């Protein structure tokens, strides 16, 4: 059936489709859970209570006409207004005869003429608003009491409760007469279900409000702290830049003050069987080439012909240091324009804090006004950096360093005091230096270089968001180190200008986010503890991502109810904070009025961001294609031939053997 109706031809495709449907069912359950907490909890566990609260009575819910009096609900043939009608009923009180010599209630109705249905209760808000008096948890309505001797008592306790101590100063018969004549019901109480519902509601409210406000203030604090960071560098930290190119037209080199950058090109031509994008196995494959290279030279592992050639070229290009001395790797997309001072600021952060193992700068949009699609992305880019990444930086756990502009520590060398050392430093006789490979560590390189993914989860990790997966691996394995955001380092890039391309891009990003959060939420060693931990924050972000479509739908329901006069204030205040605090962040960080306009465009298009794009992404969990983001005219519809990899075709050389060969070649040339 899957093959026929879902058009999945291979066993792998059918298995991925099954896993996708399972995930969609789990997402639906999460959305129903959110709906239950938001709307239906009180219906199921609280409103099942049988007590009748006066101000919640609706005559249309009863088959007969009703009248409320003497703390009871009566059925009647006549129609009466929905009010407390205790004063209409005849009373006989011995206390009134003793105190006043007559009855103080002038009612004429008799209870025997009405059909008693149930007791009636009053809640405290109604009691206070209407000036009722509570004695021993019973409610009395003094509205029709004209007895002068009770006027002071009524004035003292109107809208409140009178205790036995308070009543001692009044005549006992007067109080008993008042109670006999104006008894209207009892104070409402909450069932155990209602109490449980309130506890869940307020706990959820406190947690969500706490997260919203904490996220905002910590992001603001981090932004303020980073602005004070002094920028200075040693000037001798080796940094290597990797630019993965496919269709961006990146030929040429960087030139500054007459000095040209040293460039090495690795041209991946592919095998004879590759006819589609020959040699292009994605950005991750290009990153693995360099990461694996540094891992091999740091661990003195065997090197392939390609590794040997890269090593030889680097030795030839840099005569002041060796390939082993490179400490930092900057990764930039070919269509990304980096600000001239960005690298200096990034390297400065690395040199000042030996805990930093990776960071990213702010990516701004260069084609803001090209189309409505580019316009709606401007504020989303801004808030994802200045709110989300600033907040995560406080914990040292930015969950995604964007592959278009990020920088990693290949290794770190420190002395016994934690001071960073590099190739230009001289080792003192009593010093102990420790080299720790980070990006070049096999515990990162090996899982990142896996080519064959067997499950849908692995496919989404490896083939859709390589930047996020690399960040995940670093956080899982080096949880005591930091991944941060540096707003001062800026770059710009062009974003998708049509909806189809945006939809394809966000499909990859959303699905990659979900599957990487599944990985991180299981890591219990991240910064913090309990509700104040990165693991707790990731769990809530994961739940929030999965329930985005339901959340935006419920937001619409709440707004409609507010317009028709039934506002739910807690969710509305929460929505105001979510949308209003970013405006405050704009005012306190960028000081650019234009971003308020971008915020308005973002709010108008919230259904696209929170409903249409996530729903499309969820239903395409089993789509592992890159989409239209890097599509070129030369891309054909043909498929590559499948073959088996022949490992014997690759020769390996020990690093020491390679170094000896290079030394011999150098000596031969000098002779």
From TrEMBL:
It is an enzyme of class 2 (transferase). The lineage of its organism: Eukaryota, Metazoa, Ecdysozoa, Arthropoda, Chelicerata. Its EC number is 2.4.1.16. It is found in: Membrane. Keywords: Glycosyltransferase, Membrane, Transferase, Transmembrane, Transmembrane helix. It comes from Medioppia subpectinata. GO terms for biological process: chitin biosynthetic process. GO terms for molecular function: chitin synthase activity. It is a multi-pass membrane protein. Its main location: membrane. This is chitin synthase. InterPro entries: Chitin_synth (IPR004835), Nucleotide-diphossugar_trans (IPR029044). One of its GO terms (cellular component) is cell periphery.
């Amino acid at each position: 059936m899957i093959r026929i109706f879902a058009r999945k031809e291979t066993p792998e495709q059918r298995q991925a489709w099954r896993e996708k449907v399972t995930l969609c069912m789990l997402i639906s359950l999460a959305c129903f859970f959110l709906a239950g907490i938001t709307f239906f909890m009180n219906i199921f566990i609280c409103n099942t209570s049988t007590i009748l609260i006066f101000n919640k009575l609706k005559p249309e819910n009863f088959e007969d006409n009703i009248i409320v009096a003497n703390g009871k609900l009566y059925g009647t043939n006549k129609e009466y207004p929905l009010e407390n009608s205790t004063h209409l009923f005849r009373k006989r009180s011995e206390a009134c005869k003793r105190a006043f010599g007559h009855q103080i209630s002038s009612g004429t109705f008799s209870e025997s003429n009405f059909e008693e249905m149930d007791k009636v209760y009053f809640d405290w808000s109604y009691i206070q608003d209407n000036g009722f008096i509570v004695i021993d948890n019973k409610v009395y309505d003094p509205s029709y009491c004209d007895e002068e001797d009770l006027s002071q008592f009524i004035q003292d306790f109107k809208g409140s409760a009178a205790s036995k101590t308070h009543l001692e100063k009044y005549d006992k018969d007067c109080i008993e007469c008042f109670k006999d004549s104006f008894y209207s019901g009892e104070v409402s109480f909450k069932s155990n279900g209602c109490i449980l519902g309130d506890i869940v509601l307020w706990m959820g409210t406190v947690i969500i409000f706490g997260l919203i406000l904490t996220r905002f203030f910590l992001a603001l604090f981090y932004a303020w702290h980073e602005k004070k960071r002094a920028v200075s560098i040693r000037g001798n930290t080796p940094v290597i830049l990797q630019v993965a190119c496919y269709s961006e037209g990146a030929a040429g080199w960087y030139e500054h003050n007459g000095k040209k950058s040293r460039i090495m090109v690795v041209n991946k031509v592919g095998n004879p069987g590759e006819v589609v994008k020959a040699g292009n196995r994605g950005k991750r494959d290009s990153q693995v080439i360099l990461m694996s290279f540094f891992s091999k030279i740091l661990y003195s592992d065997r090197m392939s012909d390609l590794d040997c050639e890269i090593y030889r070229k680097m030795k030839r290009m840099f005569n002041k240091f060796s390939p082993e001395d490179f400490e930092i790797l900057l990764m930039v997309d070919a269509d990304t324009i980096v600000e001239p001072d960005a690298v200096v600021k990034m390297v400065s952060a690395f040199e000042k804090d030996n805990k930093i193992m990776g960071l990213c700068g702010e990516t701004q949009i260069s084609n803001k006004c090209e189309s409505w699609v580019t316009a709606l992305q401007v504020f989303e880019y801004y808030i994802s950096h200045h709110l989300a990444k600033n907040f995560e930086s406080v914990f040292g756990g930015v969950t995604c360093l964007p592959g278009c502009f990020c920088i990693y520590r290949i290794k770190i060398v420190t002395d016994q005091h934690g001071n960073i050392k590099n190739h230009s430093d001289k080792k003192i006789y009593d010093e102990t230096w420790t080299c720790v490979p980070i990006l070049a560590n096999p515990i990162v390189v090996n899982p990142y270089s896996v080519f064959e993914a067997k499950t849908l989860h692995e496919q989404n990790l490896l083939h859709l968001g390589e930047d996020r997966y690399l960040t995940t691996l670093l956080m899982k394995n080096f949880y005591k180190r930091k991944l941060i955001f540096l707003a001062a380092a800026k770059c710009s890039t062009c974003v998708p200008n049509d909806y189809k391309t945006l939809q394809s891009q966000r499909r990859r990003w959303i699905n990659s986010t979900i599957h990487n959060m599944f990985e991180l939420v299981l890591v219990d060693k991240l910064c913090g503890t309990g509700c104040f931990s990165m693991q707790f924050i990731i769990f809530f972000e994961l739940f929030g991502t999965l329930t985005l479509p339901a959340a935006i739908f419920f937001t619409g329901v709440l707004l409609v109810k507010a317009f028709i006069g039934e506002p739910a204030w807690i969710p509305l205040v929460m929505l105001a904070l979510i949308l209003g605090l970013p405006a405050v962040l704009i005012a306190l960080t960028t000081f650019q009025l234009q971003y308020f306009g971008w915020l308005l465009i973002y709010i108008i298009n919230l259904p696209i961001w929170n409903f249409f794009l996530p729903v499309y992404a969820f239903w395409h969990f089993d789509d592992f294609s890159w989409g239209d983001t890097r599509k070129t005219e030369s891309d054909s519809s043909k498929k590559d031939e499948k073959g088996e990899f022949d490992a014997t075709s690759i020769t390996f050389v020990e690093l020491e053997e390679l170094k000896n060969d290079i030394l011999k070649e150098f000596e031969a040339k000098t002779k």
